[in-house]
User: Fold these one by one.
Assistant:
Number 1:
Amino acid sequence: MKKKSRILIIICSLAFFGCQNQAVSQVPKVVEKAFKLKYPDENDPDWEIDAHGNFESHFKKEGVKYIADFSPEGIWIETETSISKKDLPKSIREAIKKNYSKEEIAEIEKVDSALKGEFYDVEFKQKGKNKDVEYRASGEEL
């Protein structure tokens, strides 16, 4: 019985920690090169592997925290930074007030994406999984 309990604890621990981003000490050279091309003045990012197997670089630029994602092949995916509600464009604040006035905001990010261009990701608190709503600067939902 004790053996089964230990095995169950180990399996649960692996499942829980396996869902988290993993810190990495070895980043592929192609990813490092792509990062240097995109951010030539940044010398010491912290790297993690996200749930999709992409490499996330965490760094600060002029005191602002950034996360830039790169594929294992070194292709830049997106860069995001957390911002406050007051830093959102007025049109987005108005859209939130109109459509989500009763929702509590968990996080707001400004995102520059290779596929979607620039947008804002507003995460609303909900039971279970939070709800993400993406906006263009015009206030249009994506």
Number 2:
Amino acid sequence: MLEFDWRSSEGNAVSVHASRPARAAAAAIAPAEGSVHPQGPARRRHKCFDDTHREIIATTVRLISERGVGAVSISAVARAMGINRATVYYHFASLDALMDAVKAWSSGQLAKPFTNDAPQQERVDYITRFVLENPDLIKLWIEDLISVGDIRTRYAHWDALVEGIRTHDVATDPGDAIDAEVFCVILLTSAIIGPRVFRNSVCPGADTETVVARFRKEQLRLLRHTTLLRL
């Protein structure tokens, strides 16, 4: 089972557990013990700020996965949770602020395999499944990633990823320095965009496990050739 960490707007760490990326990405964010699953309106007990903050994001992720980004609004999130709009606005000043939090959550899920100690195959498979099973979330994140601005605000682990590649390269082949920034762009885009291109345009209709298996084989081959298999 994988463990994912993200931080609330107050900077408090929130730990999330998931056995694999769920088709509805919100399933990767476990609701607090004793809370009502956000399938419809329900009366709610008083909860601490972080629990509610987390559940608002989880519900928004689920709505995006089920209905698409266009169906998400503050009112829709409030209805799905059985709370009033004022509560949502207490946590997020606007829909844009809420969507920024969702993008940050998605970025955290995509970054985790690059930063944890899980076996390489498990990390590769996780990213491919997440990308395939959450197309609307990925589209939202990619649109933000390719817009003008600092990549660090879209992908918080960028500096660590670049430094890891640069350090590894110096240790293994000091005479032929790699352009770590360009290499990391290639690494990210191939892992995050590649599976969607393959299933949508190269092999339409291919099931998830088939695509995961084919990408695993070639991504591990690429990493092996670049001596990054154990990175």
Number 3:
Amino acid sequence: MRKKNPMRFTTNRAAVSKVCSLPARGNERGSTLVEFALVFILFMTVLLGIAGFGHALYTYHFVSNVAREATRWAAVNGSTCATDSSCTAPATSSDIDAYVKSLAPPGITPANITTTVTYPAVAGGPTICATTSNAPGCTVEVQVSYPFSFIFPLLPTNPLTMSSSSEMVIAH
């Protein structure tokens, strides 16, 4: 006959299952709402970040495109364009600035656009460029800059200045 081990103890299975089981559902009330709030904040941060960077990309696209458009416009409205009736008068720096501001799409404030027009001297270029800067064969460079601020600033930042420049040879 087998002897009983005096060191062996018995357990009450019902008592162990009560102690080791998960807490009752009543103690978790409101946890779903708290989890939703945390996930919602994270989701909205990501969504607003995507919208903010999309607006920044939109602004930079405008700045780079309008610099090219203004340079082309200045190149075809040079000092001799009035003689061949392709324009009413040659383009001045203020005309180019007004042209750039007229191209501003929704979401871009025209008053904040800064346009700088220069006529850089090119080595080996026409000699007339020394006296008439916007003569055919001379070079025109237009730089456009715009201060960009995020619509939904998650962190306070200073406005970012987006700028682009374009250069062409004047045709008229």
